[in-house]
Automatic annotation (TrEMBL):
<dbReference type="InterPro" id="IPR036291">
    <property type="entry name" value="NAD(P)-bd_dom_sf"/>
</dbReference>
<dbReference type="InterPro" id="IPR002347">
    <property type="entry name" value="SDR_fam"/>
</dbReference>
<dbReference type="Pfam" id="PF13561">
    <property type="entry name" value="adh_short_C2"/>
</dbReference>
<protein>
    <submittedName>
        <fullName>SDR family oxidoreductase</fullName>
    </submittedName>
</protein>
<dbReference type="InterPro" id="IPR020904">
    <property type="entry name" value="Sc_DH/Rdtase_CS"/>
</dbReference>
<dbReference type="InterPro" id="IPR050259">
    <property type="entry name" value="SDR"/>
</dbReference>
<comment type="similarity">
    <text>Belongs to the short-chain dehydrogenases/reductases (SDR) family.</text>
</comment>
Length: 254
């Protein structure tokens, strides 16, 4: 019996939304697993610092400015990544927004702004990467979804709608592309402690409300999400296609 292979050595991985939060940590984790990493987001200054961090740890990385709201820029950005690295083997489709909106207060601008990034932008990023991977005959796409795509969360009507959409296009792409060598899956985390979520999770009452729903008794870490991403992107996850992998401490089990 062969042992599972979790190495990404020799692969080219693209991580979107990489300039902060979960994306920053995912980019470093994927690089540590052996991939050469293209980091992409709107903030070039932060991307350059991330590239320097990856290189200081012995990895290989390059920065590419990308605003996923501008669909016409996505294809050329991926063409530039392929020209730089020679391939696109893995996509970690992470760019996203998250805001609290009581449903009765949601504006059209709130709706359109989050949909443009979380759903529309994510789909067209997957499409651009998928076109390259299909031409290669192989590839792994890992969309970053949320437990909010499977269960309702108060004050998150728009966010839940976007992540439900991500789960659904993940399944459809898996059906269309799996037999052509490209697997498509999603990772759906619970509340993850990051600099962006610390303001809420550091409030004892808010944290208690979250932990009351988490059978595991703690919020998630970026490392928890990275482990799931690396599994799905590695040879060990080769038979997984069309899955939404819950990394939620049991939140959606109840």
């Amino acid at each position: 019996m062969s042992h599972p292979d979790f190495s990404l050595s020799g692969k080219v991985a693209v991580v979107t939304g990489a300039s902060m939060g979960i994306g920053h940590g995912l980019a470093k984790a994927v690089a540590a697993a052996g991939a050469r990493v293209a980091v992409a987001s709107r903030d070039k200054e932060k991307l350059d610092r991330l590239v320097s961090e990856i290189q200081a740890e012995g990895g290989e990385a390059a920065a590419f400015t990308l605003d996923v709201r501008n669909v016409n820029s996505i294809g050329p950005t991926f063409a530039a990544i392929r020209a730089h690295f020679g391939a696109v083997d893995i996509l970690v489709n992470n760019a996203g927004l998250g805001d609290n909106h009581p449903a009765e207060d949601v504006t059209e601008a709130d709706w359109d702004g989050m949909m443009a990034v979380n759903l529309k932008g994510s789909f067209f990023v997957a499409q651009a990467a998928g076109r390259i991977m299909l031409a290669q005959g192989a590839g792994r796409i890992v969309n970053i979804s949320s437990q909010a795509g499977s269960v309702g969360i108060r004050d998150h009507a728009v966010y839940c709608a976007t992540k439900g959409g991500v789960d659904q296009f993940t399944r459809v792409l898996a059906l269309e592309w799996g037999h052509r060598g490209v697997t498509v899956n999603a990772v759906a985390p619970t509340f993850i402690y990051t600099p962006g979520t610390a303001e809420r999770l550091d409030q004892p009452d808010y944290l208690k409300g979250v932990l009351d729903r988490l059978p595991i008794g703690r919020v998630g870490t970026i490392g928890d999400v990275a482990g799931a991403v690396i599994y799905l992107a590695s040879p060990a996850g080769g038979l997984v296609n069309g899955a939404v992998l819950m990394v939620d401490g049991g939140w959606t089990a109840q």
